[in-house]
Amino acid sequence: MSRFIDRVVLHVSAGKGGNGCSSVHREKFKPLGGPDGGNGGQGGGVIFVVDSNVHTLLDFHFSSHAKAGNGTQGMGGNREGANGEDLILKVPDGTVVLDKKGDVLADMIGEGTRFDAAPGGRGGLGNAALASKARRAPGFALLGEEGIERELVLELKSVADVGLVGFPSAGKSSLVSVLSAAKPKIADYPFTTLVPNLGVVSSGDTTFTVADVPGLIPGASQGRGLGLDFLRHLERCAVLAHVVDCATLDPGRDPISDVDALEAELAAYKPALSGDASLGDLADRPRIVVLNKADIPEGAELAEMVTAEFESRGWPVFTISAVTRAGLKPLTFALAKLVEDYRTAHPAPEPRRQVLRPVARNDDSFKVVKDPDIPDGFIVRGTRPERWVRQTQFTNDEAVGYLADRLARLGVEDALIKAGAQPGASVTIGEVSFDWEPQTPAGVEITMTGRGTDARLDQVERIGASERKHARQVRRGLDTEQE
Fold first, then answer.
1. Are 259 and 310 in contact (CB under 8 A)?
2. Which of 81, 89, 253, 376 is most buried, with most CB under 10 Å away?
3. What confidence tier does 187 reach under pLDDT thresholds 50, 70, 90?
4. Annotated binding site for Mg(2+)
5. Plot region of 420 (φ>0 → left; ψ -120 to 50 → alpha; else → beta)
6. Binding site for GTP: residue ranges?
7. Chain centroid to CA 380: how far?
8. Alpha-carbon gap, residue 30 to 34, rounded angstroms
């Protein structure tokens, strides 16, 4: 049995960018041919695409985590890593994407509409791309960036031409079943229908969809009953049809009061979207009144009594019986005419052009603030400093020196001095904290040392290349001198 799922929480993760490669070209008679490490591949992104063959969010209900492919590491010989594969997620027409705060990120209408939910991480630069006059053969490469992770809410607003509204047990599901081939659950108790039922109706050359929206009672716009969960399915309906129970046994109800109560709820409900994302306020939609259960004598008499009142409001009125199917043909033609008039005035939406409002990735701005958790500590916040820290391999002295030079050129060190930072103060950038040593001459001309080392950094605990070579010779018995 299929399930109608119209709201899900989805955790999306873009792919990580591949690390850059640190490599030196070597061949016969040319042992040091220069750096040739390639860049890492870009991480894959998570992309939503509207597909007309998808009708619910059921797949995301059972699989609430989605992750794109990672980029691969760069290689020697100037070979770049492969880009991670994008993850394409197909969603129904009418899906709205919100963040966890409830802000609308995308309203997806029209076949093929795309939304980049989470861009992949940047690939790290290889040492060939980092070579400069100061560093002719860098002994390090940059790390790839992590992909963006987000928690999103997907809501489906049914794209139906006609929305059937009415009190529980008014006969909405029965009407859908006789107008179309849909087979909704029908019973003689309130709230039998717990999810919207959609049916396709053909009338002459016109084909349109009808949605039965359940659970509308007084107070629905404030969350009473099931109305608040399903009122959003009316936002895209071009025509609203009041299905009225003319044979109700409730002494406190009558067709006119039922319609007035639901009209008050429709007027009170404010769509989350505006402009061309929806069709305006529900109170402004064309109306049609369907007086149901005319097969019962009392129902037929009551329908005849209230018809003039509804017609005085300018609404077409049709008296029908969903059981005997009396009066269905005129109703179907009238609905088709209203739908055709709407389609003539509003052509089918084309796939929307995606509008991106990204934050500048090369923004030079940053700020230095006091660390609230560490006495005399400081926090550096900024797009570029935080990204540079994420790209740095802190086990490599040369990479750390390169980071220090970049931060100095950006003005971070001068800003720390102006902020009153003292030698040894804790400085946090991103997720990394370190003790600030202003005497380290960052940004000055670099004294060339061995690959992977930096003479400005006192890392005596690390074994240098010459020491590793000597130890290897000792192990092989080529050097008997012991240190």
1. yes
2. 81
3. very low
4. 173, 193
5. left
6. 166-173, 191-195, 212-215, 292-295, 321-323
7. 29
8. 9
Please report where in the chains the tokens 């009066």 appear, as a residue: 327
Sheet harboring 104-108: ordered strands across?
65-67, 7-13, 149-156, 95-99, 104-108
Q: Which amino acid is at 92?
A: P
Using CA atoms, how far residue 208 sits from 237, 334, 339, in Å, is 11, 12, 7
Look at the pTM and tell me if it is higher than 0.70: no
Feature table: binding site = 166-173, 191-195, 212-215, 292-295, 321-323
Q: What angle do CA 287, 290, 292 make, to 5 degrees?
A: 160
Q: Are 315 and 331 in contact (CB under 8 A)?
A: no
pLDDT, tens digit, 9 for 90 and up, residues 281-325: 666 778 898 888 888 888 888 888 888 888 898 889 888 888 888
pLDDT, tens only, 50-109: 988 887 787 888 888 999 999 999 998 889 999 999 999 999 887 889 888 888 888 888
